[in-house]
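DM from R.C. (forwarded with permission)

"hey, sorry to bug you on a friday — could you get me a structure for this? deadline for the figure draft is monday and I only need the backbone to look sensible"
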Amino acid sequence: MEKGSKVLLIDRRGKRYLVTVEEREFHTDLGILNLGELLEKDYGGTLVSHKGEEFKILRPSIRDYIDKMKRGPQIVHPKDAGIIITYAGISPGDFVVEAGVGSGALTIYLANAVGPTGKVVSYEVREDFARIAERNIAGIGFDDRVEIKLRDIYEGIDERNVDHIVLDLPQPERVLPHALEALKPGGFFVAYTPCANQVHRFYKALEEYREHFYRPQTVDVLVIGHEVKKECFRPKTMNMLHTGYLTFLRKL
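My reply, with the result:
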Protein backbone atom coordinates (compact mmCIF):
# COMPACT_ATOMS: atom_id res chain seq x y z
CA MET A 1 0.00 0.00 0.00
CA GLU A 2 1.11 3.58 -0.60
CA LYS A 3 1.31 6.01 2.29
CA GLY A 4 -1.67 8.36 2.31
CA SER A 5 -3.96 6.03 0.36
CA LYS A 6 -7.42 5.08 1.64
CA VAL A 7 -8.20 1.52 2.75
CA LEU A 8 -11.39 -0.21 3.87
CA LEU A 9 -11.11 -2.52 6.88
CA ILE A 10 -13.90 -4.98 7.72
CA ASP A 11 -14.09 -6.80 11.06
CA ARG A 12 -15.69 -10.19 11.81
CA ARG A 13 -19.06 -8.51 12.48
CA GLY A 14 -19.09 -6.80 9.08
CA LYS A 15 -18.40 -3.34 10.52
CA ARG A 16 -16.48 -1.14 8.06
CA TYR A 17 -13.69 1.34 8.79
CA LEU A 18 -12.31 3.76 6.20
CA VAL A 19 -8.73 4.58 7.18
CA THR A 20 -5.64 6.26 5.75
CA VAL A 21 -2.37 4.36 5.39
CA GLU A 22 -0.04 6.13 7.82
CA GLU A 23 2.13 5.55 10.87
CA ARG A 24 -0.41 5.80 13.68
CA GLU A 25 -2.61 3.70 15.94
CA PHE A 26 -6.30 3.21 15.20
CA HIS A 27 -8.50 2.28 18.17
CA THR A 28 -11.53 -0.01 17.87
CA ASP A 29 -13.56 -2.00 20.38
CA LEU A 30 -11.85 -5.11 18.97
CA GLY A 31 -8.39 -3.79 19.70
CA ILE A 32 -5.75 -1.36 18.52
CA LEU A 33 -4.52 -1.48 14.93
CA ASN A 34 -1.14 -0.24 13.72
CA LEU A 35 -2.03 1.40 10.41
CA GLY A 36 1.65 1.58 9.51
CA GLU A 37 1.56 -2.18 8.93
CA LEU A 38 -0.67 -1.52 5.92
CA LEU A 39 2.42 -0.32 4.04
CA GLU A 40 3.49 -3.97 3.74
CA LYS A 41 0.02 -5.34 2.99
CA ASP A 42 -2.06 -5.91 -0.17
CA TYR A 43 -5.80 -5.80 -0.82
CA GLY A 44 -7.37 -9.06 0.30
CA GLY A 45 -4.89 -9.38 3.17
CA THR A 46 -5.49 -9.18 6.91
CA LEU A 47 -4.56 -6.67 9.60
CA VAL A 48 -4.51 -8.02 13.18
CA SER A 49 -5.29 -5.95 16.28
CA HIS A 50 -3.41 -6.23 19.59
CA LYS A 51 -6.27 -8.48 20.79
CA GLY A 52 -5.72 -10.89 17.90
CA GLU A 53 -8.84 -9.79 15.99
CA GLU A 54 -8.56 -9.93 12.20
CA PHE A 55 -9.63 -7.12 9.85
CA LYS A 56 -9.87 -7.80 6.11
CA ILE A 57 -8.24 -5.22 3.85
CA LEU A 58 -10.19 -4.09 0.78
CA ARG A 59 -10.06 -1.30 -1.80
CA PRO A 60 -12.83 1.22 -0.94
CA SER A 61 -15.69 1.64 -3.40
CA ILE A 62 -17.37 4.95 -4.18
CA ARG A 63 -20.24 3.97 -1.88
CA ASP A 64 -17.80 3.19 0.96
CA TYR A 65 -16.42 6.71 0.70
CA ILE A 66 -19.87 8.28 0.67
CA ASP A 67 -21.16 6.15 3.56
CA LYS A 68 -18.19 7.19 5.70
CA MET A 69 -17.71 10.81 4.64
CA LYS A 70 -18.63 13.83 6.73
CA ARG A 71 -22.27 14.82 6.26
CA GLY A 72 -23.85 18.25 6.31
CA PRO A 73 -27.22 18.43 4.55
CA GLN A 74 -29.19 15.41 3.34
CA ILE A 75 -27.51 13.63 0.42
CA VAL A 76 -28.82 12.28 -2.88
CA HIS A 77 -28.94 8.51 -2.36
CA PRO A 78 -27.25 5.89 -4.58
CA LYS A 79 -30.58 4.71 -6.02
CA ASP A 80 -31.27 8.20 -7.37
CA ALA A 81 -27.67 8.94 -8.40
CA GLY A 82 -27.57 5.74 -10.42
CA ILE A 83 -30.74 6.63 -12.35
CA ILE A 84 -29.48 10.17 -12.99
CA ILE A 85 -26.22 8.87 -14.49
CA THR A 86 -27.94 6.11 -16.49
CA TYR A 87 -30.95 8.01 -17.87
CA ALA A 88 -28.85 11.05 -18.81
CA GLY A 89 -26.08 8.86 -20.21
CA ILE A 90 -23.37 10.64 -18.23
CA SER A 91 -20.08 9.19 -19.50
CA PRO A 92 -16.29 9.58 -19.33
CA GLY A 93 -15.17 12.94 -20.70
CA ASP A 94 -18.52 14.69 -20.16
CA PHE A 95 -18.82 18.24 -18.86
CA VAL A 96 -21.49 18.49 -16.14
CA VAL A 97 -22.83 21.52 -14.30
CA GLU A 98 -24.42 20.72 -10.95
CA ALA A 99 -26.16 22.92 -8.38
CA GLY A 100 -27.00 22.28 -4.75
CA VAL A 101 -23.76 20.46 -3.91
CA GLY A 102 -24.66 19.84 -0.24
CA SER A 103 -22.19 17.34 1.26
CA GLY A 104 -20.89 16.37 -2.17
CA ALA A 105 -22.35 12.84 -2.51
CA LEU A 106 -23.93 13.35 -5.94
CA THR A 107 -20.88 15.37 -7.00
CA ILE A 108 -18.68 12.36 -6.23
CA TYR A 109 -20.93 10.01 -8.23
CA LEU A 110 -20.88 12.45 -11.16
CA ALA A 111 -17.10 12.92 -10.96
CA ASN A 112 -16.63 9.15 -10.96
CA ALA A 113 -18.85 8.85 -14.06
CA VAL A 114 -17.07 11.58 -16.08
CA GLY A 115 -13.64 10.23 -15.15
CA PRO A 116 -10.30 12.06 -15.20
CA THR A 117 -10.96 13.49 -18.67
CA GLY A 118 -14.32 15.00 -17.66
CA LYS A 119 -15.30 17.99 -15.56
CA VAL A 120 -17.95 18.78 -12.93
CA VAL A 121 -18.68 22.39 -11.97
CA SER A 122 -20.86 22.62 -8.86
CA TYR A 123 -22.75 25.75 -7.83
CA GLU A 124 -23.45 26.21 -4.11
CA VAL A 125 -24.74 29.29 -2.26
CA ARG A 126 -23.75 28.19 1.26
CA GLU A 127 -20.06 28.42 2.04
CA ASP A 128 -20.27 25.93 4.93
CA PHE A 129 -21.75 23.28 2.62
CA ALA A 130 -19.16 24.05 -0.05
CA ARG A 131 -16.28 23.57 2.39
CA ILE A 132 -17.67 20.20 3.59
CA ALA A 133 -18.08 19.06 -0.02
CA GLU A 134 -14.57 20.20 -0.97
CA ARG A 135 -13.05 18.12 1.84
CA ASN A 136 -15.08 15.07 0.90
CA ILE A 137 -14.21 15.40 -2.81
CA ALA A 138 -10.50 15.88 -2.06
CA GLY A 139 -10.60 12.85 0.26
CA ILE A 140 -11.50 10.58 -2.64
CA GLY A 141 -9.03 12.27 -4.99
CA PHE A 142 -11.56 13.89 -7.36
CA ASP A 143 -10.57 17.50 -6.73
CA ASP A 144 -8.69 17.46 -10.06
CA ARG A 145 -12.00 17.16 -11.96
CA VAL A 146 -14.42 19.11 -9.72
CA GLU A 147 -14.74 22.87 -9.30
CA ILE A 148 -17.08 24.28 -6.64
CA LYS A 149 -18.38 27.81 -7.17
CA LEU A 150 -19.90 29.94 -4.43
CA ARG A 151 -22.60 31.26 -6.73
CA ASP A 152 -26.37 31.19 -7.13
CA ILE A 153 -27.22 29.30 -10.30
CA TYR A 154 -30.63 31.01 -10.33
CA GLU A 155 -28.71 34.12 -11.42
CA GLY A 156 -27.07 32.43 -14.41
CA ILE A 157 -24.65 29.79 -15.67
CA ASP A 158 -21.16 30.92 -16.70
CA GLU A 159 -20.29 27.77 -18.64
CA ARG A 160 -21.18 26.96 -22.26
CA ASN A 161 -21.24 23.74 -24.32
CA VAL A 162 -22.26 21.77 -21.24
CA ASP A 163 -23.20 18.10 -21.73
CA HIS A 164 -25.59 17.90 -18.75
CA ILE A 165 -27.09 20.05 -15.98
CA VAL A 166 -28.08 18.30 -12.74
CA LEU A 167 -29.99 20.21 -10.05
CA ASP A 168 -30.85 19.44 -6.43
CA LEU A 169 -32.72 22.69 -5.83
CA PRO A 170 -36.22 23.67 -4.64
CA GLN A 171 -37.00 25.75 -7.78
CA PRO A 172 -35.29 24.13 -10.79
CA GLU A 173 -37.64 25.94 -13.17
CA ARG A 174 -35.71 29.15 -12.48
CA VAL A 175 -32.68 27.59 -14.20
CA LEU A 176 -34.48 26.72 -17.45
CA PRO A 177 -33.63 29.95 -19.35
CA HIS A 178 -29.97 29.66 -18.31
CA ALA A 179 -29.89 25.98 -19.30
CA LEU A 180 -30.97 26.84 -22.84
CA GLU A 181 -27.85 28.97 -23.25
CA ALA A 182 -25.47 26.56 -21.54
CA LEU A 183 -26.54 23.10 -22.77
CA LYS A 184 -25.37 21.44 -25.95
CA PRO A 185 -28.09 20.06 -28.24
CA GLY A 186 -28.89 16.58 -26.94
CA GLY A 187 -27.72 17.47 -23.44
CA PHE A 188 -29.85 16.56 -20.44
CA PHE A 189 -31.40 18.81 -17.80
CA VAL A 190 -32.09 16.81 -14.63
CA ALA A 191 -34.08 18.11 -11.64
CA TYR A 192 -34.25 16.31 -8.29
CA THR A 193 -37.23 17.51 -6.23
CA PRO A 194 -38.58 15.84 -3.08
CA CYS A 195 -42.20 17.05 -3.32
CA ALA A 196 -44.98 16.54 -5.88
CA ASN A 197 -46.01 20.20 -5.83
CA GLN A 198 -42.46 21.12 -6.93
CA VAL A 199 -42.80 18.80 -9.93
CA HIS A 200 -46.18 20.30 -10.82
CA ARG A 201 -44.77 23.84 -10.59
CA PHE A 202 -41.80 22.83 -12.75
CA TYR A 203 -44.04 21.40 -15.49
CA LYS A 204 -46.19 24.52 -15.45
CA ALA A 205 -43.10 26.69 -15.96
CA LEU A 206 -41.82 24.29 -18.62
CA GLU A 207 -44.76 25.10 -20.91
CA GLU A 208 -42.93 28.27 -21.98
CA TYR A 209 -39.86 26.23 -23.01
CA ARG A 210 -41.51 22.99 -24.22
CA GLU A 211 -40.44 23.51 -27.85
CA HIS A 212 -36.78 23.43 -26.77
CA PHE A 213 -36.89 20.07 -24.98
CA TYR A 214 -37.72 16.51 -25.99
CA ARG A 215 -40.36 14.53 -24.04
CA PRO A 216 -39.91 15.43 -20.36
CA GLN A 217 -40.03 12.39 -18.10
CA THR A 218 -40.45 12.15 -14.32
CA VAL A 219 -39.64 9.02 -12.33
CA ASP A 220 -39.64 7.99 -8.67
CA VAL A 221 -37.15 5.29 -7.68
CA LEU A 222 -38.11 2.84 -4.92
CA VAL A 223 -35.71 0.26 -3.48
CA ILE A 224 -37.02 -2.68 -1.47
CA GLY A 225 -34.42 -4.59 0.53
CA HIS A 226 -35.03 -8.20 1.56
CA GLU A 227 -34.10 -10.34 4.54
CA VAL A 228 -32.69 -13.66 3.34
CA LYS A 229 -32.54 -16.28 6.10
CA LYS A 230 -32.65 -20.05 6.13
CA GLU A 231 -36.16 -20.08 7.52
CA CYS A 232 -37.51 -16.88 5.92
CA PHE A 233 -37.19 -14.72 2.81
CA ARG A 234 -39.21 -11.50 3.05
CA PRO A 235 -39.05 -7.73 2.44
CA LYS A 236 -37.33 -5.79 5.20
CA THR A 237 -39.61 -3.98 7.62
CA MET A 238 -37.77 -0.71 7.01
CA ASN A 239 -37.12 0.22 3.38
CA MET A 240 -35.93 3.29 1.49
CA LEU A 241 -38.90 4.17 -0.67
CA HIS A 242 -39.60 7.73 -1.85
CA THR A 243 -36.73 10.19 -1.54
CA GLY A 244 -37.36 12.48 -4.50
CA TYR A 245 -38.79 12.86 -8.00
CA LEU A 246 -36.36 12.92 -10.91
CA THR A 247 -37.36 14.91 -13.97
CA PHE A 248 -35.36 14.53 -17.19
CA LEU A 249 -35.41 16.93 -20.16
CA ARG A 250 -33.30 16.70 -23.30
CA LYS A 251 -32.45 19.79 -25.26
CA LEU A 252 -33.41 19.73 -28.92
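R.C.: lifesaver. Helices lie at 62-68, 78-88, 105-114, 127-140, 176-182, 196-206.
me: no worries. The chain has six helices and 15 strands.
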